[in-house]
Amino acid sequence: MAKRSHIAVISIPAFSHQASIVEFCKRLVEHHDHLHVTCIFPTIDAPLPATLTLLQSLPPNIHCTFLPPISKQDLPQHAPSPVQIQLAVSQSMPSLRHALSSLLSTTSLDALISDPFANESLEVAKVFNLLSYIYFPTSSMTLSLFLHLPTLHQQVPCAYRDHKEAIQLPGCVPIQGRDLPEHFHNRSSLAYDLLLRRCERLSLAQGFLVNSFSELEQGSERALQEYTNRVYLVGPVIQTGSSSDPKESECVRWLEKQRPNSVLYLSFGSGGTLSQQQLSELAFGLELSGHNFLWVLRVPNDTPDAAYVVGSNDDPLRFLPDGFLERTQARGLVVTSWAPQAQILGHASTGGFLTHCGWNSALESIVFGVPMVTWPLFAEQRLNAVLLTEGVRVGLRPKFNENGLAEREDIAQVVQDVMVGEEGNEIRSRIEKLKVAAADALKEDGSSTRALYQFGTQMANFLGQP
Ligand code: UDP
């Protein structure tokens, strides 16, 4: 992009989406130094503290602004978190228009890049005559699912989970209906309706910037490019963490004392929770496995994404089985609610990651070459687990019984298989190769950097710039 350009970027009130899009913006301005970016965040109640920390170290050509908050009390109290987030974003659209209009009164704005869950903003972009793109913070397989949903909706007559054949998205591993995100399953729900409308709106975008890389998702990338030649795989865009995190020293100090590759790190993302029964079973499974572990513990909840919008003030430690901390103190560290994930995954002592398969966590595990135990909870995490275990085969899935519970013996077994088994060794060698491919993709001549330049060229062409 030769001439100075200004882009507005819209996210949603969820930490992992905000963190991903901010990291992407940093990469964008690093490679297009004529670019100025304004990030706009719809907000529920108040800006997220973790995001505020993240924004402390931005380059001078990225500015951020928070839209007037939507009160959590004005959102349907019993609606699932994604619905609450979606409604808050919809209610923020008048403020977004206002923010864009005041930006346009002082500067010339060329394009808008939106999170897929804020894609009403594509309609706003049309009003202001802006180019519009989607920054897709998850896999190209999920993008493919979203683009195909309007067709699937017509073609599949029954509930997706009862569909006998696997769903075959072009270039992707086959997906069983039960592995689709949970909001696909009740087709008469508000959540499904919002999702379907959001997927239909994707056709308004001029292009898609996807947080993935060619070597990870070659098949779906190729198939998507047949569908639209404006898909750019620009990842892995991951968080490198903040060195001011007070928990960093505690975790790193503890990891320093462990043997290389000996620690299983367990985390369910920025808001994932287990039920009390599952939390206890996991604790007993860890004890049985005999392996070292570093567990980010959150207060249990039967709704797995309950802590996504509002966390609990309870002490998570009191939900552990009696005597667990004493029995495991020689080989385990439990930290509450939050840990410096990038530093932990990057540490030589970490040899496995039991993850809820949020896309950022999956990419971070790949970037640091850490084999995974895949334990998806909600959203598109089951889809990510399918890609990780059946597509690129860098993780193993634990067994869940007919009640959806992973039992202690099965947990101990899968931990053993990933940490030291023969299968674990094969996984380790596959993820090592993927780690190298991820680093290569981000080099100056790597596939993701080239895709970022192609995006810039295409935008300049649209704008009629030389
Ligand atoms: N994260 C972290 N510490 C934690 C939990 C999460 O640093 O204790 C970061 C993690 O590194 C990742 C993001 O929060 O970048 C979680 O994103 P992901 O897509 O994996 O899951 P989500 O939070 O959307 O469920």
UniProtKB/TrEMBL annotation:
Enzyme class: transferase
InterPro entries: UDP_glucos_trans, UDP_glycos_trans_CS
Keyword set, alphabetical order: Glycosyltransferase, Transferase
One Pfam family cited in the UniProt record for this chain: UDPGT
UniProt-listed Enzyme Commission number(s): 2.4.1.-
PROSITE patterns reported for this sequence: UDPGT
GO MF assignments: glycosyltransferase activity
PANTHER family per record: UDP-GLUCOSYLTRANSFERASE FAMILY PROTEIN (PTHR48045:SF6), UDP-GLYCOSYLTRANSFERASE 72B1 (PTHR48045)
Protein family: Belongs to the UDP-glycosyltransferase family.
Protein name (record): Glycosyltransferase
Highest classification ranks of the organism: Eukaryota, Viridiplantae, Streptophyta, Embryophyta, Tracheophyta
